[in-house]
Amino acid sequence: MSTDSGESDRADPTGHADLSEHVIVAGLSAMGLRLAEQLQASGVAVVAVDDRLSATARRRLERCGVRVLRESPHLPEVLREAGIAASLAVVICHEADLDNLETALLAADIAPAVRLVVSVHNPQLGGQLADALAQVRVLNLGELAGPSFVEACVRSDVTHAFTMDARADAEVFAVIEEEITGRGDFRARYGDLTPIALRRAGARHAEMLPPRDTSLRPGDRLTVLGRLAEFDERGMTVSGLHDARLFATLGAGTAERGGVSRARRGTTARLREFRSIIRGELDRPFRLALVAVAAILLVSTVVLSLTYTDHNQAAPPDFGPLDALYLTVETMVTVGYGDFNFGAADKWLQVFGIGLMLAGALSIAVVYAFITNVIISRRLERALGRGRAGAVRGHVILSGLGSVGVATMDGLVRAGRQVVVIERDENNRYLPVAREQGVPVIIGDATVRSTLLEAGLAHATTVAALTSDGVANLETVLSAREAHVELRGARAAREAARRAGGRSYGRGRSPEAQPRQAGLRVVLRIFDTTMADEVERRFGIHTARSASALATPYFVGAALGYDVLSTFYVERTPFLVARMTVNAGGALVGPTLRELSTGTRVLAVTTATASVGADDSRSDDDGRGDDGRDDDRRDDDRRDDDRRDDDRRDDDRRDDDRAVVEPDYRPGRHTRLRPGDELLVVGPVTQIVDMVRRNQRVDVPARHRPAPTRASATATRGESDRAADPTDATGN
User: Fold this and answer.
1) pLDDT band at 377 (very low <50, low <70, confident <90, very high)
2) What is the spatial distance between Cα 674 and Cα 607, in angstroms, rounded to a whole number?
3) Which residues pair with 176 in a beta bridge?
4) Is the distance from CB of 133 to CB of 108 less than 8 angstroms?
């Protein structure tokens, strides 16, 4: 039995005995599985290597045509058997950084010329590895997925933004989502903006990349993409459009850290923070001890100021209330200087002095004990987080300080948002990072209601559950949403009682002056992406994100040699923005964008030469190159107008291109690509990867194009997220 199993493990189920130009995936973690499936579904031959692969995952990979070697990638003979010398790239994505480092060093030694793409969670280790090995491209899951979670946490109609490059004056593209309020065609209302998704009123699923001739009806949810300049040209007013530049800088990693957040903390906020800390530490016994000390001080001062001069022969004639307070404190703290005493006083006053000594010393000792407990124990450290959490308003509660959580926290701080972190592990290695940025940290379980209340749930705007436990994440957001509804209901009841003449302990404001509070926004990190439909349908959670689904396209791009600018979610489908150069001899050269039918949208084309050929027409009938599904619906008059616009635009381009070659942001269906042209494309991940493969050569061997699987077919319909890995757990 074991012999047969071993032979099966080494067998090639796809019949690829002479693999070349394939990708080796070493380490089949959740992201490794997703990566192998995406590559294979897009026509890239894959060899998967992992000795810890489960039987279920292995059968799943073999069904979609992936060659599986269930052996350790730390052995040189295994990598040679996988065909490392003839491979396009080796992608290394074990769950542990140490395993990734060991495999990368071995692969670099065996095949120095092969491209290596390595997943490393520790930024310092990743930097050292990239410096040591020239052929290594290091990627960090948290840094890649973090910006998308930041965008999900911020309440804005702008769901995503990116730039073509890192220049300060670079064009900013924004993805916005809005609800349609009137009837009309897309083109009449949005012009050359790019439709990304359209969800009809009452529909469960959205149509991806709809044509521009689509009619819009009230209640539809539309997602469109365009440059900020295009929104301005259309005179569109979008709530939160100013967030686009912020999101773009976060994705590029150029935003300043913490400047806005720290500047917003004025004197009032600091006083509220201090009061919250004191209130949290002064528990009931401590307060009782302080009340006892204050009472003894008051009673003794009054008694001595009224009786000390008349009943003590040694008392000075000018003994007053301040002297009485001085004598009381001196007696309670057992410090005797000899200036005042009870030696010559009447008997009853001496008895009073004895009682003052005993009661005062005891009460002061109790207060000292409480203060010592606060200072010596770790309560002071915890009080810093709890106190500041109770003082902030309009903040984001972030549960889970792993690599994804800390990247999200960092992005939110750079975006000027207040953040409170809940972390279960008091020894978490990222806690110093949070404290360095001044972020309050609550040590506790985020699924417990009391912990959420300590984190300031009553005044929070968003709860983001980003731990490595998908069930705990769901429990956290459901508990937070339920508690927030109850808090708002209680607040509304108190306000109603106040208006009705009942007792109210809040500040009185008229009903017109009461601000209308938005509901709590919840962001959920999911691992079982097939549950996205059920989570949305049963719990109404529309902001579920998979970190590996967001990061995988970067690994695919690094392996195949194209530049991934950004990834984002539309509905539950991961989208990819990529930049690629048209290769001579590739399938993209020659046909028009209409004829290519790539299932993507071309956002910009930068020509390779300073002159425009006669066959290079730039039509704005679609405003973007697309798959041509709506081209047959154009009438002849529009075609004639389009060609006249082409001629005018070509004349302008010939004049402009003599000096500087600028991107053409309005490539049309008649555009023909030439070798060396640089494209900016957007679309679902599978379609982008397929476009990359078609760009490499005209005739792709059949072995590189397996029969469509259920997962790839679903992804082609724009629903790739629902067909993704049901065990998407990276442990970060």
Assistant:
1) low
2) 8
3) 158, 224
4) yes
Residue type (1 letter), 6? G
Beta strands in 166-244 (DSSP E): 172-179, 184-185, 194-199, 207-208, 215-216, 221-227
Q: First CA to last CA across the chain, in angstroms?
A: 37
DSSP string, 286-315: HHHHHHHHHHHHHHHHHHHHHHTTTSBTTS
In 634-686, at which residue ranges do the beta strands (DSSP E only) sit? 678-684
CA distances from 493 to 490, 504, 514, 553, 602 (A): 5, 10, 14, 49, 54
Decide: 359 and 412 in contact? Cβ < 8 Å: no
- What six digits make up the tokens of 50? 């992992």
In 3D, which of 509, 544, 513 has the Cα closest to residue 526?
Answer: 544
Distance in angstroms (rounded) separating the CA atoms of residues 209 and 597:
12
Q: Does residue 632 register a pLDDT over 70?
A: no
- pLDDT tens-digit series, residues 228-286: 888 888 877 766 677 788 888 877 654 444 443 443 445 665 565 556 555 655 667 77
Q: What is the pLDDT of residues 96-153, one digit of tens each?
A: 999 999 999 999 999 999 999 999 998 889 999 999 999 999 999 999 999 889 988 9
Do 607 and 674 meet the contact criterion of CB atoms below 8 Å apart?
yes
What is the C-alpha to C-alpha distance for residues 511 and 352, in angstroms, rounded to an integer? 57
What is the distance between the alpha carbons of residues 186 and 211, in angstroms, rounded to a whole number? 9
CA distance 140 to 125: 11
Residue type at 71?
Answer: E
Token digits of residue 667? 């490539």
Closest CA to 91 of 142, 137, 41: 137
Degrees (nearest 5) of the Cα angle 725, 727, 728?
A: 70
Query: How would you write 3-52 as a 3-class SS string?
Result: HHHHHHHHCCCCCCCCCCCCEEEECCCHHHHHHHHHHHHCCCCEEEECCC
| R_g of the chain, CA atoms, integer Å | 34
* Distance between CA atoms of residues 677 and 484, nearest Å: 53
Q: Is 107 helix (H, G, I), strand (E, B) or coil?
A: helix
Do the Cβ atoms of 459 and 393 come closer than 8 Å?
Answer: yes
Tokens of 176: 């916005």
Q: Can you tell me the distance from the alpha carbon of 122 to that of 97, in angstroms, rounded to the nearest whole number?
A: 7
Whole-angstrom distance, CA of residue 533 vs CA of residue 86: 41
pLDDT band at 504 (very low <50, low <70, confident <90, very high): very low
List strands edge to edge, sheet with 441-443.
441-443, 419-423, 395-399, 460-465, 521-525, 544-545
